[in-house]
């Protein structure tokens, strides 16, 4: 087993990373991502990233070997959904105290915690997460996990991703390495078939995967493992027998996709289930990969039939919204796959993208954005809150789509805002998800509250002082304007005068 330091360097040198491939040999030695300074805030640490990737494996016990505060990152950190198992919603921690850390009692307490979980819950596996504190004092969680697995007869998986190792994205990839080293390939399925696929980098946020899976079911395609969204341990352990794979978020798990292709010959492509045309193209790519791996070519015709039916149904539902949203300007403050997939989806219904963040996007993501927007000036790496507020308050966008951290900038600028990150309440993937996304945008943009909050406040308007009732048309118009400004009465109420 490689040391944590060697694993981290290997992840940085990921050959499938477009950014790394574009460098010369000397620069490539430094890796495709620069480690952050310990303690520097960057949207989450490596431990956070590893937990994000592995937590949605729903029938596994996730045990954090650390003081209690580290388990503040618990099951609800991403809004992923489960169709059955609920063990992932239970927080487990060794709750190390200062005395135990000083006296070196951490490993003993970890072993005891694994024993208690195995006896009380009998899970198929326990994932043990190293953190900053336990890594710094040299806790050997690999040895403890190996001994516990032999003693209790279940899989105990060490996840070496202490927070100080780097960013959240690094933690994503380290979680993929843990799956490759300890989980994938450990179970041989007895029902492998020519239509089995893996979906990688799909987190089933707000149940999005459940809008896509029925489409694949209708084509006779079985998702052997969706990693990690709504996953089960045995499905992940046997995922090496899939015939093809789709990569949804390459920034998180590109190393997992590449190594599964190298070890087990599973070809993969990167696609998106956001938007009508992207969903259709993803289905086509899946079918074509399966045919290349020996599936019946008839699946290609069935796929086109399904696409024609679903696109017709979706566009019929979108027509009413397209008329209302045509030409509306959108600012996307997100990253990764959403930086181009959401942009493409919205341009399909005639909306204009005035800007999209590419801070977390790969080189390939940026190239897709350039093809979609036809203008590289609409891309920005990072926009300060002051600049973002200025852009919105000056009316350069009709709505902003982003995560919860920037919602208050939009609200202060009195601009409609919609959450499209992990905290969202509605699924936006697939054909039905696209209809839901457009419906939510329409509801937000045309909400009457925006007209009301943009009106001047009553104390900013001149007072309405009248010695007598208005009689002429001009006097009536003046009173109507003043009362509307002050919010005292609607224009129609003046008829009573």
From TrEMBL:
Q: Where is the Nitrogenase/oxidoreductase component domain?
A: 45-442
**GO MF annotations for this entry?**
nitrogenase activity
UniProt KW keywords: Nitrogen fixation
Q: Does the keyword Hydrolase apply?
A: no
One GO BP annotation is: protein-containing complex assembly
Specify residue ranges for compositional bias: Polar residues. 1-12
Give the metabolic or biological pathway: Cofactor biosynthesis; Fe-Mo cofactor biosynthesis
Asked if the record carries the keyword Transmembrane, the reply is no
Name the segments for region: Disordered.
Answer: 1-32
What domain of life does the UniProt record list for this protein's source? Bacteria
Which residues lie in coiled coils? none
Q: Name one Pfam family in it.
A: Oxidored_nitro
Q: Which InterPro entries match?
A: Nase/OxRdtase_comp1 (IPR000510), Nase_comp1_CS (IPR000318), NifE (IPR005973), NifE-like (IPR049939)
Indicate, by first and last residue, each region the UniProt record lists as having compositional bias (Basic and acidic residues): 16-25
NCBIfam families in the record: nifE
The free-text function statement in the UniProt record for this protein reads: This protein may play a role in the biosynthesis of the prosthetic group of nitrogenase (FeMo cofactor).
Question: What family, per the record?
Answer: Belongs to the NifD/NifK/NifE/NifN family.
Stored PANTHER family: NITROGENASE IRON-MOLYBDENUM COFACTOR BIOSYNTHESIS PROTEIN NIFE
Protein's name in the database: Nitrogenase iron-molybdenum cofactor biosynthesis protein NifE
